[in-house]
């Protein structure tokens, strides 16, 4: 058994909204070039599998059949269907849209199957993490929700408890909506406050449908300009305690890296170093609570050359149990390839661990991040039998 599997095909670059769109396939191209240049593809702990498009039946486990037909039609005729979010500025049409989005989804579902059957311990799909797509509509650059489909497949195969962690700067609204009334799935999203960023949702008071699912949705909306240290503090203050209570059999995490300070589409200031720490935490939590079963997905990230490839190459390395050294110099050949595209190339992978203040050191009511975290703890922890002031 290979320890980790990365799904990849050059055809994943066909998910392309066109010139000028923030979600450029260049970010995936440069990520895979860096993965290769770092020698990760030669590691015995990592295998690469092709990404095959999912069938309509698989897609329809989380999407309406009418919507799937509409995506296929729009990607053929290029006629907008604005009611379903197809042909908007965020989700412009392109030929083969259905096939490209189905390939993203198929890759994540295949990894979920391999995790559950024990073929692999960890799975990575850097082209996945399309967390905004709703059952009947595209949204926020996302056509099909591969994260939700992967979770659905785990449930269909017999999983009784799954945790979904979303680190994207934007609220993971689509996954939350799909599992809003399902207590088997604990969704946790840390994101920029919806009052200052798309999609405008994800308040700390949003905790799942009243009844058995209440408490199964967790939102940590942090204020604009939150630093990496404060971001890690917020995660540490909420996530480990809830994972211990939920006892997941699988952890699915979405590693959108648009919380970075150089990202053009958010207002947070979370460094690559802090994002690498979050990756390490998810890996450790998977081994501690889920027998190592960990599915890691990409997501947002629009600093296409100097942030995204670093964060996601590091994610692949983490899953393969060959983590990259902080401050390591990036391969000269990769930097030259980036510069040949007239893009900015990072020279090193981060710099150092990010020190942060543990929640156990006390709540600071004057700190806006602490206030946001405490609002989440007060909304959710009692529903799990936890004390929001102590646990």
Automatic annotation (TrEMBL):
Coiled-coil region: none
SUPFAM superfamilies with a match to the protein in the record: Arginase/deacetylase
Statement: the UniProt record of this protein carries the keyword Membrane: no
Record key words, sorted: Acetoin catabolism
Annotated CDD domains: HDAC_AcuC_like
Taxonomic superkingdom: Bacteria
Pfam families in UniProt: Hist_deacetyl
GO molecular function (one): histone deacetylase activity
Domain (Histone deacetylase): residue spans on this chain: 21-317
Any one of the GO BP annotations: epigenetic regulation of gene expression
Family that this chain belongs to: Belongs to the histone deacetylase family.
Protein name, entry field: Acetoin utilization protein AcuC
Organism: Promicromonospora soli
